[in-house]
Amino acid sequence: MAVLQMQKLCICALKKDRKSLMEFLQAAGVLELSAEAEPDEVFKRTDTLEDRQKFERNAATADRALEVLAAVVPEETSMLAGLAGKPLAKAGAYRETEANAEALLGQAERILNLQKQITEEKTAALRLLAEAESLKPWQKLEIPLAYQETKRCAILAGAVGGGAYTQEEIYASVAKQEPQLEKWELEVVGSDADQTCIAVICLKEDEEKLETALRSIGFARPARPVEEVPAAYAKKLKAQAAEHEGRAAATEDLKLLSDYYRLRAQKYEALGEILQSEKTCMITGFIPKRDAKGLEEKLNSRFELAVESSDVPEDEEAPVLLSNGTFAASAEGVTASFGLPAKGEMDPTGIMAACYVFLFGLMLSDAAYGFIVFLMCFLALKKFPRMEENLRKSLRLFMYCGLSTLFWGVMFGGYFGDAVDIVSRTYFGHTVTIPALWFVPLNDPMKLLVYSMLFGVIHLFLGLGLKGYMLLKDGKVVDFICDVVLWYLLLLGLILMLLPTELFGSIAQMNIVFPPVLNSLAKGMAIVGALGILVMSARDKKNPILRLALGAYDLYNITGWVSDVLSYSRLLALGLATGVIASVINQMGSMVGNNVFGVIVFILVFCFGHLFNLAINLLGAYVHTCRLQYVEFFGKFYEGGGKAFRPFKQITKYVEIKED
User: Fold this and answer.
1) Chain centroid to CA 657: how far?
2) How do residues 460-476 score in pLDDT, each as one tens digit?
3) Sign of the C-alpha dihedral, residues 628, 631, 633, 639?
4) CA-to-CA distance for 649 and 657, rounded, in angstroms?
5) Each residue's pLDDT tens digit, 371-396
6) DSSP summary character for residue 204
7) How far is CA 424 from CA 488, 578, 644, in A?
8) What is the secondary structure of 280-318 as a DSSP string?
9) Mapping DSSP to helix (H, G, I), strand (E, B) and coil, where does residue 644 land?
10) How far apart are CA 406 and CA 394, in angstroms?
11) What are phi and psi of 201, to 5 degrees?
């Protein structure tokens, strides 16, 4: 639980080494460049905009080429591919790409130029496949469609529109139109919903009359007679279509090239920020103190330069980099979403992480849900060891929250709500109940409300205590007494005065009796705290009337404390919501009864219902737990506003470069 101490680093090197030096710093990824030094007559900044834009255009060219290839040959990825992280590329492969960059860029440009041809090839393939599909009703015809006659006979091949006709229906229709025609034969080759394909043979002298009779029922010859047997020709068309698809699917791996130009653009953007003279260059920035010595040694061993590190001046705010153990680090994203510690503030992540996990589990509070969340996060972390770091931290936080949910579910006796009771009673004839280790919130909601308020008071007092710790750390003893101790006296006194009252007894369903001396002590604590706040809150004001007025206004903030404590009733609300919805799902699933159909319905309702309940309450627990940290807890001692440490490093899109 710490904010890493930062140092300022100043490097003065030969100008001829500036590019290789920037590449080394980019690969090291531990120095945040600073452009605060102003140019003068000797040291100036170089305009690298044109070079940077050229590299960005080249990277964009590679990206567009990859998009073209991805459209032709999509990469096979699983639903969980986003968890795997970027694939590793060895430094040797990166240097090979650097050497062949121009040739690879030429290939990317040729792919873009061939995009039109690829589209044409795909269109041709689709056209051929459509033509082959149109020949499907003709598959049984054993002569070419274009075959029209023998020495004495004529052959009519075509389609009768309007649906499917039988051979008898066509014979009857022709006989009605031309009853004198006798020497002709008809075969129905095939049909579909729109047409009936037929082949007719007749004497040549009867061809005209027969075709006229067939036209009366919608007969038409093929618009494009085929010179080959339809089945063989359709097979040939499909082979040609496959050939066109093959030409359209030529691929190249341009990901490393895109990242190469992307890194060069980043390097040249940084080069434009450093100061350069005729022979030297100067690089300044912030670096964690733990990394400063190691970087200095590596720089001195590789380059001719002078490097100096120094502490950050008191009047200057350094960037913030948090350093926590595995458990606390999982909640760094929650802290960063609110704001990193400002100068002089402590890192609250460690304590906040423990509170977050505790309250999250209390809100979800179902053992089965908790086990599912824990197991899914645990398996994802094990299966994808190279997962992106921020995503890894988030999943680890939810894994811990799953364990907390499992704990509270066992304490409250929730296993998919009351699924054990419902299943045993409905399908096995006798009720089996897993007893709660503590109590069942649905049976005693007021008890959970009281404990929710108690946990809230502890959480708020912890925040006030951290404020006191920060004041003592800075040597502000008077502020500690006036802003922390007096509030503790007032709040504890009021709480001790509230506990023996009938109001609290009716809510908590318990009767608390304090000895008279404790009642008197509680009143005394409240009075001393209130008077102290009234007099000392505005202690920097010399005007006594203004001082008392501001003190009274500060004392009015007791209503804010009441509001904050009441906010923890959401622990009751979300905890009950999870159990109530789960119970309703179980009841709905069991309504069909103990039969085969009832079992199937129960399984379907159970799976989909509890999946929905888990998803919606998981989201609710996340949002409301964050709210309790940001508003109630952080509101007592923490402001944030620190600037995140953003080192100059390799930011790639497709691959992660691994140094040899």
Assistant:
1) 23
2) 999 999 999 999 999 99
3) positive
4) 11
5) 999 999 999 999 998 888 999 999 99
6) G
7) 51, 21, 55
8) EEEEEEEEEHHHHHHHHHHHHHHSSEEEEEEEPPTTSPP
9) strand
10) 18
11) -125, 135
